[in-house]
User: Which sequence fits this backbone?
Protein backbone atom coordinates (compact mmCIF):
# COMPACT_ATOMS: atom_id res chain seq x y z
CA UNK A 1 0.00 0.00 0.00
CA UNK A 2 1.37 3.36 -1.03
CA UNK A 3 1.12 6.16 1.56
CA UNK A 4 0.54 9.75 0.41
CA UNK A 5 0.64 12.61 2.90
CA UNK A 6 -1.51 15.39 1.44
CA UNK A 7 -1.13 17.44 4.62
CA UNK A 8 2.59 17.90 4.09
CA UNK A 9 3.48 21.52 3.43
CA UNK A 10 0.04 22.73 4.56
CA UNK A 11 -1.44 23.01 1.03
CA UNK A 12 -4.65 24.73 0.08
CA UNK A 13 -7.58 22.46 -0.75
CA UNK A 14 -7.03 23.04 -4.48
CA UNK A 15 -3.33 22.18 -4.20
CA UNK A 16 -4.15 19.02 -2.25
CA UNK A 17 -6.76 17.95 -4.83
CA UNK A 18 -4.26 18.44 -7.66
CA UNK A 19 -1.68 16.40 -5.76
CA UNK A 20 -4.30 13.70 -5.12
CA UNK A 21 -4.87 13.47 -8.89
CA UNK A 22 -1.14 13.12 -9.58
CA UNK A 23 -0.56 10.62 -6.79
CA UNK A 24 -3.41 8.33 -7.87
CA UNK A 25 -2.13 8.31 -11.46
CA UNK A 26 1.39 7.60 -10.22
CA UNK A 27 0.20 4.83 -7.89
CA UNK A 28 -1.55 3.11 -10.80
CA UNK A 29 1.55 3.44 -12.96
CA UNK A 30 3.64 1.95 -10.16
CA UNK A 31 1.27 -1.02 -9.83
CA UNK A 32 -0.24 -0.24 -6.43
CA UNK A 33 -3.72 -1.55 -5.68
CA UNK A 34 -4.18 0.53 -2.53
CA UNK A 35 -3.26 4.04 -1.45
CA UNK A 36 -3.50 5.40 2.08
CA UNK A 37 -4.23 9.12 1.89
CA UNK A 38 -3.24 11.20 4.91
CA UNK A 39 -5.41 14.33 4.84
CA UNK A 40 -5.73 15.16 8.53
CA UNK A 41 -8.97 15.82 10.34
CA UNK A 42 -8.71 19.52 11.18
CA UNK A 43 -6.93 21.18 14.07
CA UNK A 44 -10.14 21.42 16.08
CA UNK A 45 -10.73 17.68 15.77
CA UNK A 46 -14.17 18.12 14.23
CA UNK A 47 -13.23 18.11 10.57
CA UNK A 48 -11.11 20.28 8.35
CA UNK A 49 -11.66 21.57 4.83
CA UNK A 50 -8.95 19.30 3.43
CA UNK A 51 -10.53 16.15 4.87
CA UNK A 52 -14.01 17.11 3.71
CA UNK A 53 -12.99 17.98 0.15
CA UNK A 54 -10.62 15.01 -0.30
CA UNK A 55 -13.30 12.58 0.85
CA UNK A 56 -15.90 14.31 -1.34
CA UNK A 57 -13.58 13.90 -4.32
CA UNK A 58 -12.96 10.23 -3.50
CA UNK A 59 -16.71 9.56 -3.20
CA UNK A 60 -17.26 11.14 -6.61
CA UNK A 61 -14.40 9.13 -8.14
CA UNK A 62 -15.86 5.92 -6.73
CA UNK A 63 -19.30 6.88 -8.05
CA UNK A 64 -17.85 7.45 -11.52
CA UNK A 65 -15.77 4.23 -11.42
CA UNK A 66 -12.48 6.18 -11.50
CA UNK A 67 -11.46 4.21 -8.40
CA UNK A 68 -12.90 0.93 -7.17
CA UNK A 69 -13.68 2.13 -3.66
CA UNK A 70 -12.55 4.32 -0.83
CA UNK A 71 -12.80 3.69 2.88
CA UNK A 72 -12.77 6.66 5.27
CA UNK A 73 -10.44 6.20 8.23
CA UNK A 74 -13.33 5.97 10.68
CA UNK A 75 -14.50 2.87 8.76
CA UNK A 76 -11.05 1.26 8.48
CA UNK A 77 -12.02 -1.56 10.85
CA UNK A 78 -13.24 -5.17 10.69
CA UNK A 79 -16.86 -4.25 11.46
CA UNK A 80 -17.13 -2.29 8.19
CA UNK A 81 -18.29 -4.46 5.28
CA UNK A 82 -16.02 -2.88 2.64
CA UNK A 83 -13.02 -3.07 4.94
CA UNK A 84 -13.73 -6.68 5.90
CA UNK A 85 -14.06 -7.72 2.25
CA UNK A 86 -10.72 -6.08 1.44
CA UNK A 87 -8.93 -7.52 4.49
CA UNK A 88 -10.18 -11.04 3.73
CA UNK A 89 -8.45 -10.83 0.35
CA UNK A 90 -5.33 -9.14 1.78
CA UNK A 91 -4.84 -10.26 5.41
CA UNK A 92 -1.57 -8.30 5.70
CA UNK A 93 -3.69 -5.14 5.92
CA UNK A 94 -4.50 -6.05 9.52
CA UNK A 95 -0.92 -4.99 10.27
CA UNK A 96 -1.55 -1.41 9.13
CA UNK A 97 -0.89 0.99 12.02
CA UNK A 98 -4.23 2.75 11.46
CA UNK A 99 -6.35 -0.38 11.15
CA UNK A 100 -9.12 -0.39 13.77
CA UNK A 101 -8.15 3.01 15.20
CA UNK A 102 -10.99 5.09 13.71
CA UNK A 103 -8.41 7.56 12.40
CA UNK A 104 -10.38 10.44 10.88
CA UNK A 105 -7.21 11.78 9.32
CA UNK A 106 -6.83 9.07 6.67
CA UNK A 107 -8.69 7.43 3.81
CA UNK A 108 -7.92 4.17 2.03
CA UNK A 109 -8.28 4.19 -1.75
CA UNK A 110 -8.80 0.96 -3.68
CA UNK A 111 -7.56 1.37 -7.24
Assistant:
Amino acid sequence: MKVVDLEEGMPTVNEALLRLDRELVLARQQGYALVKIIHGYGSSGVGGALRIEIQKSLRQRAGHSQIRDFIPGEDWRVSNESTWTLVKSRPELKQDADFGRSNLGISIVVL
Q: What stands out?
A: The beta strands are 2-5, 34-38, 69-72, 106-110. Residues 76 and 109 are 11 Å apart (CA to CA).
